[in-house]
Amino acid sequence: MKKLIIIIAIFFFFVMGLKLGDNSFNQNKIFEEEKNQFEQEITTPNNDYEAKELVPQKNTINKVADLFDNTIDKVVDKLKNILKKL
To answer: What is the pTM of this model?
Structure first.
């Protein structure tokens, strides 16, 4: 019974981490805007297009998501070890 509760708790934190790290709506909107701008630039005749490098901003949400991701990785590794012992 204790193992079942632990597995359910791990699954809960896993799903919670995925939800906190999910920022797909904003990313999709940003991607579409950049794609449209890119398509306009490259379809201009005699265009001298210079690619720009996009780097994600490090903010609190990214740091928290990285923390959850690392925690989830550690928990999953420990869970694998526990299941191997069974």
So the answer is: 0.36
The string of pLDDT tens digits covering residues 22-67 is 655 566 778 888 888 888 878 877 777 777 777 777 788 888 888 9
Task: Give the integer Cα–Cα distance in Å for 10 and 4.
Answer: 10
Q: Give CA–CA dist 40/27, Å, rounded.
A: 20
Instruction: Extract the tokens encoding 22.
Output: 């999910």
- DSSP code of residue 44: S
Token pair recorded at residue 56:
């994600």
In 3D, which of 70, 65, 84, 83 has the Cα closest to residue 7?
83
CA distance 66 to 84: 27
What's at 57, amino acid-wise?
Answer: Q
Query: Residue 54 in contact with residue 34, Cβ under 8 Å?
Result: yes
Quote the DSSP letter at residue 57. -
The tokens 């526990």 sit on which residue? 82
